[in-house]
Amino acid sequence: MNIYRTHNCGELRDSDAGKTVRLSGWVHKKRDHGNLLFIDLRDHYGITQCVTDSNGEVFREVEKLRHECIITVEGEVIRRSADTVNHDNPTGNVEIEIKKLILLSRAENLPVTAGVSADLPEEIRLKYRFLDLRREPLHRNIVLRSKIIARIREKMQKSGFLEINTPILTSGSPEGARDFLVPSRLHPGQFYALPQAPQQFKQLLMVAGFDKYFQIAPCFRDEDSRADRSPGEFYQLDFEMSFVTQEDVFNAIEPIIFEIFKEFSDKAVSPYPFRRITYEDAMLHYGCDKPDLRNPLLINDAGNIFKDSSFAAFAETVNNGGVVRSIGVAGAEKQPRSFFEKLNGWAKEQEIPGLGYIIFDGDEVKGPLAKFLSEEKIRALREHVPASRHTDAEQPDRQKNGVVFFICDRRKKAEKISGLLRQKLGTELGLCSGGFEFCWITDFPMYELNEETGKTEFSHNPFSMPQGGMEALKTKNPLEIKACQYDIVCNGVELSSGAIRNHLPDAMIKAFEIAGYKAETVQEKFGGMLNAFKYGAPPHGGCAPGIDRMVMLIADEPNIREVIAFPLNQQARDLMMDAPAEVEEACLKELHIKLDLPKGKIK
Asked: Are 265 and 257 in contact (CB under 8 A)?
């Protein structure tokens, strides 16, 4: 028999009444009722109430216990009286009458208490993460993460994918972030890079003839933190497939993602096939390439309406290459004046002069821009108000009432601000509803123009196949070439980028040449993969949904650190293990490294 427990703390039920049992765990809470002392004993599985009275042999021992001491109790399972049953706890019908107690480990005064749910400073939580992880919400998230990963593995294997681990010590990769470098002791002056993603290796596996690969891949990127991105390291469901088109990749992963979200959440999940939205349409109608489809508002182009209007500010901007974006909101005509004043204040915070709008309220048309437009243009703008429950088939002649808001600026800024405005209006007016809304963003531009340098650069993944292949690279304006690239998005969070890969050596060299790379540079940086392609590479593609982001969405957590056991803080520091840290001079010498520290930083 196990010397520490016969049962765990989430296991006992009515049917166990009368049994003598042994439990071990942490003192979650202690309550003194005079002649009775109660302990909530907690382990990984749950909480069981234990009790002793003042006549019990262990009463004095229980009195001395602090929160989070680890103990073993032995005693009889008894049913609670009807008025003391805890219906919120699976073990709430019973309690343990303590006959014997052993103190296994004493706890000092705690900076983080598992039984306290009040918000604590993040610095304290991360410094004492091992204590923070005892708290039920965080503990539950880590268990959820483990179950999700296990289920993903099962589903990928059933779909014919083979799990293969790729190297951690490798060479640099152009994934858009800085590499973490590891100095080589055996090769002075040379460095390994931790993989930003297993990109080249998974493509090489396709060249090697492994038809379907996946792994729960650790990735390392030296980039800034944000709510949906962990600095330093993260995990992704990395997979690749041979002899596939974009639709084949979608068809392979959509059922798995749908089933994972359906199984581990009570919320509705948009059915597959998920919506396909081109990058161009996403930027026009949502103002970003990761739209939250729970928000019903759409952005429209109103440039032609203002192009020859008497409103000089908009007309001049449009005629000089700018754009006007509109967002129509049904029912917003009833909002008070303060609502519009606050939006104007918000607009100024976004570094635009103000927010234009027109209010449609029955036959009345008002707002700061109404007087500048003809009746015909006013009628056209009323169509930018979406249909509401008042404009249905039963009342087809009823006018659309609402407000149309306007953003006018250069295209990129107008897209960004209108996207933020759409999000703000949807949130403040309570329009965002529903569960998980998935979509694919497709047809990304292969290249973009760097406005500062005037040079043509890769827009996204340089290893993507250009639509039209080599012919497009040779004959089309680079800024008009679309890539066989796609993102999967859920509720405004990008889960992953993916692509059909450029598997043709000549096309790869040409693609990099357009972005300013010489053939020798391509050979030097990506020689391993480029040479492999010369020996026969199948058409292939894949994707890599982020595990951390999926768990964050399913757990309904606003911050990704709430679903990672030991995350770094926003400054990419591990406060618990005090990393990164300085190393001894002898270690640096062995690695042939001399430090060139910023002024004021003393080694």
From this structure: no
